[in-house]
Amino acid sequence: MAFKSVLTFRSSPEKEGHSRAELAARYIECRKQTEALAAPLTAEDQMVQSSSEASPAKWHQAHTTWFFETFILSPHLPGYRTFDQRFRDLFNSYYNAVGQQPEKALRSTFSRPTLDDVCKFRRNVDEQIAVLLGSDHSSEVLELVELGINHEQQHQELLVTDIKHAFWSNPLRPAYQQNRSATDLAAPSQKAETHAGGLIEVGANGSAFHFDNEAPRHKVFVQPFRFATRPATCGEYLAFMDDRGYERPELWLSDGWKAVLAHGWKAPLYWEKHDKEWLHFTCSGMRKVEEPEPVCHVSYYEADAFARWAGARLTTEFEWELVAAQAQVEGNLLEQGRFHPAPAQGGDDPLQLFGDVWEWTASAYLPYPGFKAAAGALGEYNGKFMSGQMVLRGGSCSTPRSHIRATYRNFFPPETRWQFSGIRLADDSL
Amino acid sequence: MAFKSVLTFRSSPEKEGHSRAELAARYIECRKQTEALAAPLTAEDQMVQSSSEASPAKWHQAHTTWFFETFILSPHLPGYRTFDQRFRDLFNSYYNAVGQQPEKALRSTFSRPTLDDVCKFRRNVDEQIAVLLGSDHSSEVLELVELGINHEQQHQELLVTDIKHAFWSNPLRPAYQQNRSATDLAAPSQKAETHAGGLIEVGANGSAFHFDNEAPRHKVFVQPFRFATRPATCGEYLAFMDDRGYERPELWLSDGWKAVLAHGWKAPLYWEKHDKEWLHFTCSGMRKVEEPEPVCHVSYYEADAFARWAGARLTTEFEWELVAAQAQVEGNLLEQGRFHPAPAQGGDDPLQLFGDVWEWTASAYLPYPGFKAAAGALGEYNGKFMSGQMVLRGGSCSTPRSHIRATYRNFFPPETRWQFSGIRLADDSL
Amino acid sequence: MAFKSVLTFRSSPEKEGHSRAELAARYIECRKQTEALAAPLTAEDQMVQSSSEASPAKWHQAHTTWFFETFILSPHLPGYRTFDQRFRDLFNSYYNAVGQQPEKALRSTFSRPTLDDVCKFRRNVDEQIAVLLGSDHSSEVLELVELGINHEQQHQELLVTDIKHAFWSNPLRPAYQQNRSATDLAAPSQKAETHAGGLIEVGANGSAFHFDNEAPRHKVFVQPFRFATRPATCGEYLAFMDDRGYERPELWLSDGWKAVLAHGWKAPLYWEKHDKEWLHFTCSGMRKVEEPEPVCHVSYYEADAFARWAGARLTTEFEWELVAAQAQVEGNLLEQGRFHPAPAQGGDDPLQLFGDVWEWTASAYLPYPGFKAAAGALGEYNGKFMSGQMVLRGGSCSTPRSHIRATYRNFFPPETRWQFSGIRLADDSL
Amino acid sequence: MAFKSVLTFRSSPEKEGHSRAELAARYIECRKQTEALAAPLTAEDQMVQSSSEASPAKWHQAHTTWFFETFILSPHLPGYRTFDQRFRDLFNSYYNAVGQQPEKALRSTFSRPTLDDVCKFRRNVDEQIAVLLGSDHSSEVLELVELGINHEQQHQELLVTDIKHAFWSNPLRPAYQQNRSATDLAAPSQKAETHAGGLIEVGANGSAFHFDNEAPRHKVFVQPFRFATRPATCGEYLAFMDDRGYERPELWLSDGWKAVLAHGWKAPLYWEKHDKEWLHFTCSGMRKVEEPEPVCHVSYYEADAFARWAGARLTTEFEWELVAAQAQVEGNLLEQGRFHPAPAQGGDDPLQLFGDVWEWTASAYLPYPGFKAAAGALGEYNGKFMSGQMVLRGGSCSTPRSHIRATYRNFFPPETRWQFSGIRLADDSL
After folding, report:
1. Global confidence as pTM
2. Do D44 and C44 touch (CB under 8 A)?
């Protein structure tokens, strides 16, 4: 089977503590998490697709279920009867090997199946996955369920960022949740720690779940570097704006400057100036921009220009990983339910490596040495996107805690702004 | 008041039989009609906006209500309290004089207000219109209510054509209604009647409701002409297609040929060839193309090319009106509930002037001599669209019976195909 | 032969004074005129194509020659040998019946043939036309040569408007000719003459050359109207601009307002504000806008908005023709060599019907009753453009005197601004 | 001075043999080379700009001269009088710090200055550079002249690729030069050499001219790899095409597949199938595709898909440099005057590292550790393009011999095809 190289469990899942019972429990937890995220939304809310980057919440609920049906139940559960034959194409996102897909923009027309039908689809697949996990002990099935959970977690984050964009697009500006003010509006000052670098190893080794793009683990040489102790804040970004950051081409990459002119960018996405005050749209509605909060919803171009303005640069993905490999995976993640970055709190530096905001790196998204995409449909998961995108690291306030790790590589085109994407400065240490 | 010239009741509405009681009854009937059309649709269905030409059904329900609130209740009902202040901009379509409007494409993001809220908005406005009609005897109010009813009838037709497009866009191809087969699948053969023309009068005179673009009534000189006894059928159109109609530039206007190449047109909208059979999407789902049915969902360019291929031309709007002025307003209209054109049935020629399909004319949509748009917002109703569009006449299977008349001028850009638009041939009589 | 209905000489050309000798002389004169217009231009200048509407001067010189070769020499001169086989496709503009055409945008890549080669092509065709006119007495050949001359005259005007645009696009802003100041910078005040209208005849009758789109002559009924005694001036247009004409949507057609927003129009094409003074680019370079000069380089939308602002409307093409039928064809035309409109001078009203600026009419460009396009390639001359365009009347400062007449119908899409297009006001007479 | 880090001469130019006399000689040689390349072109040919990527030959001649005037003569030659003030903006390409630039597409409208004027500009600058080099001994001036020569060499290559595209766009398909057939139509078979990799140094050290993007020299760790002994041939690429390479999405990056669909790619740029034979447009006109020749005019996406089809991958820029550091800089380069890749000839492997075709690498174009763009205008030379582009190595048949070296980094967006860009396969050595 081709999926091996995608999952790359090297040792027995059982031994690694991924017992079937635990996996079944995590499956249920994951599915409930998705539904909890959708709970504040009406059936109508779950129809909205407000940009070509986003998808409707109902589609996220259906597509994640389709993944379990298509890649696990259909090939592995004897006698499994497809819930609805027509869903095979309808909820395919981009897997050419599975068959046709509707154009992405059409997802907003999927009033049928109704949300009720999609919920039935979810329950049916949940029941059958339970049956499968009760009967099939093969590591392949366990690995695939693990992959399906991780896949659904990615869509949980997208569900949040997509509904945020949807509600922002609606002139009524409804809120996704009640206002949750940050409790501690101050942030430690920005500092730079020096790291020695050297010939290090990066990437995932085989003992736990990871995506194929995190492997193979391999050596890289890293020059000495300085690394910011926390992400850049709104206050620091306002200083860049006040210093005419959006008007000075010398601060920008050529493509970035074109984007500034083409889109009329004058501030991060969701920011609006009312009278003399900057507000931004959050999952709790319009709110004052708080200076100590990490800045987010900036593109790679803005992150890069800010860094140049600051006399620094962005971190590389390997510098980031070298630092993060020493840190605990904890922070302002999905489970906190804030869906908004919070000011850094005192503690051991560096702060906020995980959660709050994805950190744009200066690294293009490329395969690691020795990477080969899997054969078949699941080989389309990551490898085919390895051009024209930049790596982000660390997860955000909408990333599930069990989903993120030091070796995790997220990636988006450099113009992307609707994710919770922020800025970690670095520099060469001379 | 500026609205006079829009409405152009010249005599007292009372005397013309438009008593307040009758008007109130027609108001209620109209509002119920809209809701009956929306009844087969889920709240999710009513969110879909599948093209830049169309709007969601929920939006149609809200916007027609907004019209009554904005132009009647707010200025004329003492003490009227706006249902929701935010709707004033939200459900404005294109009236610059009323204020800002959201970009049309954003209508698909209006998950809030919910359908329930829109229904409450409808009921509230209905109650207040009843109060107003019970207390205000001014002809201005009566005229405005009349205008509001006619406005809502236009949106009833759009609601049908828009949901047809929405369901066609969904790969599942749901049906709006149960299949209603045509009962009599034969059509009389096409003939041409000769008319003498001469110096005639066209346009609406003041004694009954009409839109401003139908007036003033005025003289035009019409040459002798020949006029087809019924619209062109699918069978006739198939002959055009079989004769390589879509491949011969000499049959097309230059802009039409560009449209053929740009869009890859090979058949009317909604047509698909399965094996060797032509099917088309209807309000009752996918169905075989029946040769005796009037062809519809063709652009002006296709109608014009078909006419050239047939050695004829399209009728002008004045030839059409001259003929239709003698006919009864009856036919396959909205109230029949077919939402699909039916084969012509024997009877006095010409057939199917009203209902079935709108008939593209060879006339550009321009003001009549002496036309002046009203001042203020309602002056934006028709006049500002008088460029780049062609006139259609006669109503379709989705036009309310009380909405259509011989002087009625519909208009669309020549590329338009999602309306029930068909072909009436004519020619010069030499 | 199919060309008959294009040319519609009804009587013998000889009897009408179009003797062969005279025609041969006019042919030579026309060809020399083209070359005189190109004389100030380098070979490099003649390469420039600065917009999708325009063509390079060299192309105009070649295409007009191609017309004579393709439609006259090849079919009618026995033993004629094509100058260069490859030119048949290369210099075809839009005649699908003749064969393939290069995309219009490619004309800027035709560095080969060189200008020298094109001049040889011209001389060769000139010699052969002389041979043909010396030997072939058929009225068909005479009619075709007449058509070819008229065709080349159209391209003379385009050569001027296209090189004006080309030089304006070059940041160096070279001048096409030496500065020719207007001698008399004052204009009579604007007045409106009343005309009774009635059942009149318009269109060309058969006794002299005209294009197919001017025929058949036919009856139309015209309401009483008022007609401005001269075109609107720059001074009047500045008053519209100063009254925020470009900022008030209520003055504009819906499509016009979209064009204002999409293109950021704030003034006519070629106008620029330097400090507090308006300048515009002319064939003599940048020059102060003179208030008494007729305003030009406005789109139909701007002409229409200006008229609405002025409490008037544009003239219809039939009103215009009714008035112009009484006037002499004289004015500031190509032969004056000014290539710029001049202030109206006293005289019998109405003034400046011919020359100075084309006058946008309120009439869509549609076929006259009984119009049939010719079969074959020459049938593509006019008829296939009869959608989406508005009629202009009267010729401009770049129209040859022998080319224009009261029945002449020019036509352009409503956004067009690079022609010398101006404004003649009219109104209903109540 | 800011230019230091651009040029990064670390030692005295004099000692390195870059005596002023030698530099002056190389300056003259370089300028003559440009003019020799332009010699076969008419003034009209030198006007053509056939795509948004390309520029007219006249512009290349002027812009390279502008570079010497703007960055060397104006600041460094006392009393230098600008040849024409207006050229400062006119011939600026993208240096925001120098001032405004015309939109790139406008370059095709620069009929003025004429080619003659541009030649005078060239001669004037040549004379003044000679004066400067005779009087100013500063290393800064020498370094800037060196930079100007290298800049002009880049435009020499572009002049060739741009005129190739221009002539291909002209339906007459003129040839840039007489047909030069390859003399030896056979190529050695493709093999893979194994390299051990390890912790190596890459990048330019300071002792000779290099661009800022080649420095600093730094350590990288390279895994063991296999490296193809020659570039892929047309014959090998035809095998990919015959195996439906352009129809199988699983072979392509996601963005690559979109490009295939959007542009309808079925073969490399310039290839056309006539009957059953593949021809391609070359600088010598249309010619049969010869199987032993290196394939070129492929995008990064095509190179990547071909490699995947072949079970391999593209080389990284560091693997390439590691191998090339051992090789002589010689091959089919500009001075050969073929302007077309030639079949590999026997000799020591690997073959054709330099010349013939640029080799797309799997490396994104990013700054080296420690890279800082220079301050001021020359800092815009390379650094601001470091996003969205891929590195190419080795030079092509249109690269001057003295311009290329093992550390040289060329870069283009992955869709680019009009350069002589080809494919070098590599793979991991496991």
Report:
1. 0.95
2. yes
Homologous superfamily of the C192-428 domain (CATH):
paralog of FGE (formylglycine-generating enzyme) (3.90.1580.10)
D47–chain C Cβ distance below 8 A for any pair? yes
Cβ B47–A49 below 8 Å, yes or no?
A: no
CA distance B65 to B117: 12
β-strand partners of A192? A228
Whole-angstrom distance between the N-terminal and C-terminal Cα of chain C?
49
Picking from D58, D90, D109, the nearest residue to C50 by CB comes out as: D109
CB-CB neighbors (< 8 A) of C89 in chain D: 171
Instruction: Chain A: give the shortest CA distance to residue B40, in Å.
Output: 13
Distance of CA C374 to the CA centre of its chain: 22
Distance from CA of D205 to the nearest CA of C (A): 43
Does domain C20-169 bear CATH number 1.10.10?
Answer: no
Locate tokens 């008419």: which residue? D42
Nearest to B91 by CA among B72, B73, B118, B116: B118
Facing C109 at nearest CB: one of D42, D50, D58: D50
| Phi–psi pair at A391, nearest 5 degrees | -85, 140
Q: CB-side exposure of C226: number of CA atoms within 13 Å?
A: 14
Give CATH 1.20.120 domain extents, chain D. 20-169
The structure tokens listed for B177 are 């209604």
Q: Which residues of D touch C58 (CB under 8 A)?
A: 44
ipTM topping 0.90? yes
Are B171 and A45 a contacting pair at CB < 8 A? Answer: no
Stretch (H or E) spanning B425? strand B425-428
Cα-based distances in Å from A303 to A126, A310, A335, A360, B16: 41, 11, 27, 7, 70
List of chain A residues whose C-beta atoms are within 8 Å of the C-beta of residue B174:
111-112
Cβ atoms within 10 Å of B168's Cβ, excluding its own = 22
Put simply, the answer to whether C370 touches B223 (Cβ < 8 Å) is yes
**Other beta carbons within 10 Å of D80:** 16
Give B31's contacts (C-beta < 8 A, 6+ positions apart): B122, B126, B152
d(CA B106, CA B100): 13
DSSP H helices in C272-316? 300-309
Chain B contact for C273, CB < 8 A?
no
Per-residue pLDDT of chain B (430 residues; tens, 9 = 90+): 222 233 333 334 444 445 889 999 999 999 999 999 999 999 999 999 999 999 999 999 999 999 999 999 999 999 999 999 999 999 999 888 888 889 999 999 999 999 999 999 999 999 999 999 999 779 999 999 999 999 999 999 999 999 999 999 999 999 999 876 656 678 888 899 999 999 999 999 877 899 999 999 999 999 999 999 999 999 999 999 999 999 999 999 999 999 999 999 999 999 999 999 999 999 999 999 999 999 999 999 999 999 999 999 999 999 999 999 999 999 999 999 999 999 998 777 899 999 999 999 999 999 999 998 777 788 888 899 999 999 999 999 999 999 999 999 999 999 999 999 999 999 999 7
Please answer yes or no on whether C42 and D114 come within 8 Å at the CB atom: yes
Looking at chain A, which residues constitute the CATH 3.90.1580.10 domain(s)? Answer: 192-428
Of A47, A49, A172, the CB nearest to B86: A172
